[in-house]
Amino acid sequence: MATVVSPRGQRYVDLLERVWGERKGLVGWLTTTDHKRIGIMYFFTALALFGAGGVEALLIRTQLFGPNGHVLSPAAYDEIFTMHGITMIFLFVIPMTTGAFGNYLLPLMIGARDMAFPRMNALSYWIYLASGIFMYIALAQGHAPNAGWFNYVPLASKTYDPSNNIDFYGWGLIFNGISSTAAVINFIVTIFKLRAPGMSLNRMPLFCYAFLAVSFALLFALPSLSVACLFLELDRQFGFQFYNAAHGGAPLLWQNLFWIFGHPEVYIIILPAFGIATAIIPTFTHRKMVFFPLVALAEILVAFLGFGVWVHHMFTVGYATVTTVYFAAASLIIVIPSAIQLFAWIATIMTGTPEFKTPMLFIIGFIVFFIIGGLSGVTLAAIPFDQQVHDSYYVIAHFHFVIFGAAVFPILGGMYFWFPKVTGRMYNETVGKVSFWTTFVGTFVTFFPMHILGLMGMIRRNYTYPAGLGFSTLNAVETVAAFVLAGGLVSIVLNLLISYFKGPMCGSDPWEGDTLEWSTSSPPPPYNYAVIPTVTSPYPMWDKADRELDNRRLERGEGVFALGHRTPGSTVQDAEFDELLKMPPHSIWPPVTAMALAGVFTMLLLGHLFIAVGFAAAIALALLGWHHRGSEP
Amino acid sequence: MSAVPGGAPIEPETPAGAVRLAQRRQALPNGWWAMALFLCSEVTIFGTLIATYFYLQFGVHQWPPAGIAPEKVTDPSIATGALVLTALPMWFAARAARMGSKRTVLGLVALALIVQAGYFGVQIALMSHDLQHFSPRGTAYGSIYYTLLGAHHAHVLLGCLLDMAVLWFVASKGLTNYWLTATRALALYWYVINGLAVLVLLTQLSPSL
Amino acid sequence: MIVVGGLLASGCGRQSIISNQSPPAHGITVLWWWMLGVAGLVFVGSVAFLVIGYVKRHTPGLPFLGQNELAAQGLVLLFGIGIPLGVLVALFGVSDVYLIRQTAAPAPNTTRLTIHVIGHQWWWEVRYGDGHPVTANEIHIPVRTRVNVVATTADVIHSFWVPQLNRKIDMIPGQRNRVLLYANRSGKYRGQCSQYCGLQHANMAMFVIAQPAPAFRSWLAHMSTPAAKPTTPQARAGERLFMNSQCSSCHFIGGTPAQGTVGPDLTHVKSRSTLASGMIPNTPKWLADWIHNPQAIKPGDRMPDLGLSWGEVHQIVAYLQELK
Ligand code: HEA
Ligand code: HEA
Ligand code: CUA
Ligand SMILES: [Cu+2]
After folding, report:
1. A248 and B161: CB-CB below 8 Å?
2. pLDDT of residue A111
3. Closest Cα partner for A107 from A425, A515, A411, A537?
4. Quick check: A156 and C157 in contact, CB under 8 A?
5. What is the tens place of the pLDDT at every residue in A149-193?
6. Min distance A48 CA to chain B CA atoms (Å)
């Protein structure tokens, strides 16, 4: 707590420290069920994979520096760009946003002590880690997936890609999907049921709305990908005919299934970024969000409408005009909820008193890039134009503006914003600003010329291009800028790393933030809050009276629940106190279960069905251990 | 807004406490919610499989392809009817769980398990019969036919394993809050799997209807 | 924006959608400039708001309107719903209702010429009608004539794209897609496979050559003739070698025993300007290099390194040089 705790209050705090104390050392990390520690593990894993995806991006750029480049062989190039796409989308952005930011912040923001299912939360992380390793084994063995991140058949069929590389993709994505599914179920139940009493749905921070929307979108989008990958592997490994046109199958089945997942996926990528923006903007503009209810609605609408537009990735496959026109209209409609949010942010900044600290700068960068990327997205929804520039660098430009500019910038801003909360120390503001401008300029110069290249007819996924088509200059510029961009990113990481050791201490609420996480100490204790906070508005930290009330309640021991791992459960809509939940303590079973699951997928990949069944039995045993006497909450 | 109770008496972990909690609770328990969301995902999977079935059907002239007889109606229909009926014992088991009567729960779940396992056995027999006539490798029809059915059978098998787990833990630990919720979640699982069984059956039989 | 325009205009290469040469491509270019203009306005306008926010960062509220929550909400409604709705409806009408008719596939039997283009890893097979001449990687069309292109594939998905002439169309197994080709004026237009199709996707280019109708007709007539007989001893040796080695199992040469269909038709290979799908110029030297070791030029290509000696290669080259 920020204020000095009286001796009576301290008694409760001591009790909580004892009850919630975490194990030390490696074992502590392996068996932890603390959402903050799991969030941190997610963060570092995703960051490392961002590094990997970034190195791959730089390899791509180096190869394309000039015409007829020779840095990578054609085969290596194909693997590198495929791994770049897969890594960034499945192993970096999603785990970084939902896994790291969501895990760390959601329970804090809703005033809970943990996620609804802490062990399942750990399980999600371990499965994610295992699936990441699984995918990178493919690269290590020398043939990684190489059919692009959307892996169209028949190029990805056994006939044209006989090695096992595509099987890493097929099984790996199903494996990874299990982790995401478990994670989002956890998020939804946590948001529905674990909000601090008093935080009715209309008082929930917009950040949480964004994560709620993302969770539902993932829940309904992933099955389509998993089924598509299952068909793929049945075709590849067992000779089924789903995608084989010669035997009644349909190559377009894959495309439809993939994009029914793939398009919601892109909004899944951007929504957490929206959430982070709506957390940072009120804090630095010192005012509440303009039009809170409409923004909440828009966040949910984006996720929802995102399910009805997938064919806009398939405008050139030869569908009848009626079909494509419907999907073009849907793609245009989705602009409205995005525009509502955009102008709500802009209006908040305009009417507030914005303070341009580093996190806020990244949000400004995000807004600018989102406008550019969004507008180029709108041009792509104009069918004839899309049919021209589809699969050209114009598309690459569009989505790097929305994905890197608009989705990753808030992640970077969020790293600065919550760094003091997570570490208790302040980063270096000057270096932060320099990093921002380097990254901003680097991003713009890397990706903006790609629009022009696309219009000039440069196709994507080409390992090289001939001289004489006018592509050379812009490509060289992009490559140089990509290295500038990389420098900016590395300087961010270095700034935070050095500040972790050397930064000045910052107290619990350096920004005068609006949400609950700023009320607890930095870093937060394992139990998050000594008293389950009182909530009477969506900006609980700005309700000073409530915070003082919490301090008095601590002295009375009210809402402390210190006897055992406990947190209140409340009703779904009004968040009335409903029951006292008992949370499970640390457990070794989540990593064990994840290992057994990794065994299943490895054996499927190798085609040893019986051993796979053996590992499945091992999962059952692990689950028995999980529910063993005494470990049950 | 209801106030948070003060120094808070801890909810008893005993079965009696669990019953009291189950009856007083306003919202559905977390475990139930988790199962409901998991089932959303599974229903979407089956939606995708069934959509694939019809997508592939519209792409070809003859369905099922030449040489494959349309499915016989009676046997799978009777089996599915029996499976669907197990929703009843599951419903009563969930109710009994909330009232804390452990023996009724055990009896009803066991009863349901017998029928469900029987269903699984019959379906496997039917499938191996089918396999003698046409292969999943020959045509896309065979591929989606066996994949759709196989996916459902796998869910029935998983349900049977869950039945056994609930039986075992309720018997050994009693109807604690955790296992009480588990019983309710299990009942929910079976309602949905039984509903899906009907959809899968209708799809399977659609060429013969 | 001006910079962009300038770059586009100056850099308009042989494959740019901006330097359009047909009505559909022109329509798309016009659409693009309009979209760029409107998008530029929207962008500048939105950024202007941010700048206002920055300038007045020390005073809360809007300029002139002050701290008025309703005004702020009105701003969101106007710019978030009102204006976009208008813009989007207009865009939808122009592009997805009006322009789309121009770029749609030609209605059946409305064109005098139909060309079948078949994608292969990584080259294009071109057939004029049924049983008519076959060529590769160079598509001749009569100028100012509507041509129906039927796009299919022999293996994986490719996409047929000649940016200056029209939109692209995917070539999908089991499907017959069509697209209109039309050229305002004679010329050579570069096209490229734009759907990723494996290792040499980058080098799967082709040319559309639009010529006046008489020239086109005589070209077509010439293409229908069988291959010329070799005249020099060197070339005759080359022919024998070609027929007796693996070449003939993959390539077709009209009027000879070479009846393969794996690789491009070579009946009139000398008449083409490039080799290996636009990758290298069709000169004797490059041809020799290609035959000596195609893998060194186009790694992973379906044409293997046959291990011929340079002597043998030169004989074959001499032969192929005569296939005009
Ligand atoms: C974060 C991810 C993200 C986001 C948010 C978006 C947002 C949008 N995208 Fe994008 N898209 C991708 C990621 C994303 N996209 C990816 C990864 C691909 C390619 C995949 C691949 O092929 O590998 C892709 C490809 C893609 C295509 C297919 C291109 C092709 O392959 O041919 C299309 C076509 O319609 C499209 C459209 C849109 C539209 C209409 C939006 C809209 O939601 C944008 C809405 C936002 C705005 C419009 C800006 C803000 C609003 C205003 C400034 C108000 C005023 C606006 C107007 C008056 C118009 N996208
Ligand atoms: C979230 C998604 C995401 C992100 C962030 C990026 C980031 C970048 N991408 Fe993108 N890209 C995709 C998703 C993404 N990409 C997808 C989906 C495709 C399509 C693939 C396909 O066609 O199949 C693609 C394709 C793609 C291409 C086209 C390839 C082709 O078609 O041939 C190019 C080319 O320039 C490119 C470049 C870049 C660059 C320069 C960055 C840069 O922004 C990257 C900068 C990042 C770094 C330099 C990392 C810095 C490191 C750290 C901060 C960590 C350090 C810490 C530790 C090591 C612990 N990408
Ligand atoms: Cu053919 Cu790309
Ligand atoms: Cu999309």
Report:
1. no
2. 93
3. A515
4. no
5. 999 999 999 999 999 999 999 999 999 999 999 999 999 999 999
6. 30
